[in-house]
Amino acid sequence: MDEAIYYKRTIVKEQVPSTSLGQERPVRILLPPGYQELNTYPVIYCQDGEQFFNFGRIATLMNHLIYDEGVQPAIIVGVDVDVSTRTSEYAPGEARFEAYTHFFSQELLPFVESRFPVGSIAKDRIIAGDSLGGTVSLHLALNYRSLFCNVLSLSGAFLQQTQDQVAKETDLSWLNLYMLIGTDELEIATQGGTYDFLEANRQTKQLLEARSCNLTYIEKPGKHVWGFWQKELPEALKLFL
User: Fold this and answer.
1) Which residues contact 30 (CB under 8 A, 6 or more apart)?
2) Contact status, residue 18 vs residue 103, Cβ threshold 8 Å
3) Is residue 138 within 8 Å of 126, Cβ to Cβ?
4) Would you list the domain boundaries of the chain?
5) What pTM was computed for the model?
6) What CATH superfamily classification does 4-240 receive?
7) Which of 133, 175, 129, 173 lies closest to 152, judged by CA?
8) What are the tens digits of pLDDT across the range 61-81?
9) What are phi and psi of 13, to 5 degrees?
């Protein structure tokens, strides 16, 4: 097969108005090969949208899956974030967390669904994120379970507040969660301090399993970097598609 087809892509850039955030939020929307407006596609919403496209190479990986492995085509929505407010938006308990999760669930979804032929029920939506992006994705599912039931987490920052929220749950059998964590992620520096992400993910895994979450947990040698996550992304996507 001609290699060029893997790199051919149609990306639509939009500005999503948001009263929750008090500003527009840039998104990039990848339309799959053979895109037809009469079809209905599953949709993958990515936190750190720019990084998923540039460092995660999600557009190229998706084309390989579609052409080489017959994976169901999906529309991918990369939601950009300002690095200076990222922690404030993605970390539970921080100043902009409620505003961001409200934007995501109440403003972003209707915007995308009114313009593109994506599925509009929870099973058609996948939310993906790395590090704190994985955190906010899991919290979105827990807080808006009628909207989200599929979460793809790459080295999620599942620290105390997240563990406390999971511990309050009784039945997570509705939740499909992919968790990847690297065995080298023992001292991860964050704005709130340095944490052992491996141990935090192991503890969260136990809490999730005790509540019947449909969990795929992958632990293997890897650091807290896109070079690790990118290699694992195709298998993670196949799990949901």
Assistant:
1) 9, 10, 11, 53, 58, 59, 62, 75, 76, 77, 78
2) yes
3) no
4) 4-240
5) 0.96
6) Alpha/Beta hydrolase fold, catalytic domain (3.40.50.1820)
7) 129
8) 999 999 999 999 999 999 999
9) -100, 135
